[in-house]
Amino acid sequence: MAAPSEPSQWRHSIVPGLMSYLDAGSIITMSIALVLLQQPLGISAWGFGFLTGLLTASFAVGAFVGGRISDLWGRKRVFLVNLAMYIVGAGFVIVASDAAWLYPGIALMGVAMGIGVPTSLALIAESAAAGTKGKMVGLSSALWLVGIMGTLGLATGVAHYGPLGARILMGHMMLIAAVALVLGFGLHESQEWKEARAAGGSAESTKIPLSTLFTKRLLGPLVALTAFFTLVNLPANTLGQYMTYLYVNVAGVDASKASLLGLLGLPIGLIGAVIFMRYADKSRRKPLFVVGAILQVVAFGLPAVAGVSQWTVFFMAAIAGFGGAFAGEGIYKVWSQELFPTMYRATAQGFTYGVTRGVTAAFAVVTPAIIAYDPAVLLWIITAMVAVAGVVGGFAVQRLGADRGTDPWLVADTADEAELEGSNA
After folding, report:
1. Model confidence at 422, in pLDDT bands (50, 70, 90)?
2. What is the pLDDT of residues 320-355, one digit of tens each?
3. How far is it, in rounded angstroms, from Cα 329 to Cα 38?
4. CA dist., res. 224 & res. 301, Å (int)
5. Contacts made by residues 407-410, CB under 8 angstroms, sequence distance 24+
6. Residue 385: which of 261, 258, 296 has the closest Cα?
7. Exposure b/e, 343-380, CB count within 10 A at least 16 = b
8. Bridge partners, residue 411, by sequence
9. Alpha helix locations (H) across 159-215?
10. Burial class (CB within 10 angstroms; exposed 0-12, middle 13-18, buried 19+) of 178
11. Is the dihedral of CA 207, 211, 213, 215 positive or negative?
C-alpha cells in the first residue's frame, strides 16, 4: 500500500479531528446555552438537570453502538452520517420555541458525538503514514482544546444577548459540523479498513463476531484501557464541569473573573498537546507519560492540601491540563488505536468511551453534594484516581503494548539522536 502524501495525511487528520472540536465545544456550548435559555423557554430545575445529563448519556449510547457500526460499515460512511445527524440535532436546539424541542435536539447531538469520536479517531490513525500515527491522533486532542477555547471566546462576546447568544453559540457548532461534512466527502475510505474487510471475506456481523472482543486476547487491553480512561477522564470531566463552581461558590470569585482565569489556563494545556504530538510516535512518550502522571497528582493534590482559593484552582487546572496532555486522553487515544485489530478498533474504543461517559455522568450528579460537604473530600478522591490511573497506564497498558507487539508503532528518535551526536562531535 502506498504511503499517503503529506497534504492528504493532514487533511485526513484535520477533517475527522473536527469531531473532537465538536465534542469539547458542544459540552461548553450546552452548559452556557441552557443557562441563557432557561427562563425564556421555561426550563425547570429538574428539566435543566435532565437536559444536562441527556447530552452525556446520549454520547455513551452513541459510543457503544457507533464504534461497532463503524467497524462493520466503514469509517467514512459513518463519519458523514453522524455529522448529518449532529446538524439536524443542533437545528432543533436553534429553532426551539419551548423546552420540548430541546430534548430531541440534544439527544441527537449526543448520539452523533458518541458515534463520531471513535469513528473519526480510527479514520485518522488508519490514514496516517507509519511513524506518524500517534502524532496525527494526538492532533485531535489539540483540536479538542481549541474547541473549548473557541467556544469560550465566542461566549464572552455573545452571552449578553441572552437567547440570541445561545442560538449564535449553537449556530457556531452547526457551522463547524457543516464544514466537516462538506470536506468529509473528499476523504478516502480507510485503506487499512478495506484491506481488513477483504481479508475477512465480508463485512457482515457474522464474520466479525462481537464476542471476539471479549476473548482472552482482547479482553485484557479492553479492561485495562477502560479502567485507565475512566480514572483519568472522571477527574478531567469534574474539573471541566465544576471549575467555575469551585471558583464562585468556594473560592468566592465572581463568575466573570472565573471565566477569564479558566480561559487563561487553557493555552498551557494546548502547549502540552503540541509537545505530545511531537513525541507520540517515539519512545520518549513513555518517560513523558510518567512526568504527566506525576503532574496530575500534584495538580489535584495542591488545593486538597493548601485549600481552595482562586490561585490553587487556577494552578490545578493549568498543571492538570499540561500533565494530562502526556498521561490523559491523548495517550489513551493512541493506545486505543494500537492495541486492537482494525475490525475491532472502533468497537473497543466505543465501549471504553461508553463506560467512561456513563460513570462520569453518574459522578457528576453527586459532585455538588460532595463539594457542599467538604471540597477537600472531592479533591482527594480525584487525586487518588489520577494516581491509580498512572499505575494502570504505566504498568498495565504500556506493558500490554510491548507484549503484544504494538510497540513497533513507536519509531526511534533518530532525528533527536542525530542532533545529539552532532553536538558531541
Report:
1. very low
2. 999 999 999 999 998 988 888 888 888 899 999 999
3. 32
4. 24
5. 409/133, 409/134, 409/281, 409/338, 410/134, 410/281, 410/282, 410/283, 410/285
6. 296
7. bbbbbbbbbbbbbbbbbbbebbeebeebbeeebbebbe
8. 282
9. 163-184, 191-200
10. middle
11. negative
Q: Residue 259's closest CA among 174, 151, 382?
A: 151
- Tell me the three cell numbers of residue 261: 482565569
Q: Which of 67-76, 168-177, 405-414: highest mean pLDDT? A: 168-177
- What lies within 8 Å, CB to CB, of 382 at 6+ separation is 234, 235, 238, 239, 300
Specify the DSSP class assigned to residue 114: H
> Does the global pTM surpass 0.85?
no
d(CA 360, CA 356): 6
Q: What is the CA radius of gyration of the chain?
A: 21
Is residue 225 within 8 Å of residue 333, measured between CB atoms?
Answer: no
> What domains are defined for the chain?
1-203 (1.20.1250.20), 209-425 (1.20.1250.20)
Distance CA 112, CA 80 (A): 10
> Which three cell numbers, joined as nine digits, stand for 61?
449510547
Q: Report the residue count for the chain.
A: 425
| Set of cell numbers at residue 295 | 503532574
Residue 131 pLDDT exceeds 70: yes
Closest CA to 310 of 267, 361, 249, 354: 249
What is the chain's mean pLDDT, rounded? 85
Query: What are 218's three cell numbers?
Result: 482482547
Residue 14's Cβ-count burial label (10 Å; 0-12, 13-18, 19+) is middle
